[in-house]
Amino acid sequence: MSDEHRQYQSRAEARRAREAREAAMARRKRGRGAAVGIAIFIALAVVGGGGYFVFDKLRGDAAPDYASGEPGPEVVVVVNSGDTASQIGAQMAEMNVVASSAAFYEAAVQNPAMSSVQPGYYHLASHLPASEAVAALVDPASRVGSLVISEGRQLHDTRDVNTGAVKRGIYTLISEASCLPGASGDLDCVTVDELDAAGAGSDLAALGVPAWALDQVRVVPDRSRQLEGLIAAGSWDFDPAADATEILRGLVSGSAAKYEATGITTAGANVGLNPYEVLIAASLVERESLPADFGKVARVIVNRLAVPQKLEFDSTVNYALDTTELATTDQDRATVTPWNTYAKEGLPATPISSPSIAAVQAVETAPPGDWLYFVTIDAQGTTLFTRSYEEHLANSKLAVESGILRSGR
């Protein structure tokens, strides 16, 4: 075995492997079924026990299999929702992870952990004995390109004013999830800078931006923020061998489908907002309130826009500063930015975070109410709503007394 087989492939090699994998997948006849864990479990159960004996007799000669030894270059294999053990084995053979799909299938039958394999991307060595290939596939450490985006997460890193703690942004999370071992043994990752540059690109179709957001995204004043809110909160899988634009396109287009499932393309008409404005408003709801108050905060936004009256949300002040703080300073609130709703009327230029689906739905179905003001008065998140400015001042006094509205600067 040559030295090059002892080294991990570079990202370029991984991309070539991805192209080969895609070609292999195109040749496969896709089956339809339940989630992959269930599908594999059923497939294995069918050939278990006596069924396996019959299969073995019918098969005759032993299936071709690689001998134990030094593994070959590593590749990225994808498991799709609904894949059976046979379909996974076929791809494994196409990618030269195993010598034959039959050998993989036989090994899969004997490994009960196969029933827990989830859809996603897996980083595996090639030229493996089938039993080792199955063991590698079921090892959680082999999973790559998997990330969870929490509700209210922003594209870029943010810093807490009071503690100095840095909250990793979506681009940082994607970068970390994209890492593959490189040829030298070091990790090879899509960098935050590459993602930031790709996300600022002018070809919005290449980035997966949906038609209902195109016109407003085109005029975003800061290109590096144009995808804000368009990558939805939730669990995601992406091909870590892809480049930055391909990764973002998959996440943005997948997110658009999630948002569209809520009715975002039409539901905003109920509150006088277009789909992209619904997304912006939902991001404000996410950052300004707890789930129990989503509906009321959504109604405050709708009511203020209708008056019209400035929103005056501290979250929009923080957004342009890449900081987080419940209270902001007079100087910060006076700083004019396309997002600062103390300094401008209407909605901010873009969403200020990735809202939850619950926040989107809260805007689409904002409950009736005449509230124009709200303030959180304690660290537990107790929030008071009113239409009266005088009552709002009294409520704000409670917040000041509790220390919740005291800036850390």
UniProtKB/TrEMBL annotation:
Transmembrane segments: 34-55
Keywords, in A-Z order: Cell membrane, Cell wall biogenesis/degradation, Lyase, Membrane, Transmembrane, Transmembrane helix
Marked site (Important for catalytic activity) residue numbers: 288
Reactions catalysed: a peptidoglycan chain = a peptidoglycan chain with N-acetyl-1,6-anhydromuramyl-[peptide] at the reducing end + a peptidoglycan chain with N-acetylglucosamine at the non-reducing end
Top EC class, one word: lyase
Sequence similarity: Belongs to the transglycosylase MltG family.
Function: Functions as a peptidoglycan terminase that cleaves nascent peptidoglycan strands endolytically to terminate their elongation.
Protein name per Swiss-Prot or TrEMBL: Endolytic murein transglycosylase
Native source organism of the sequence: Rhodococcus gannanensis
Gene: mltG
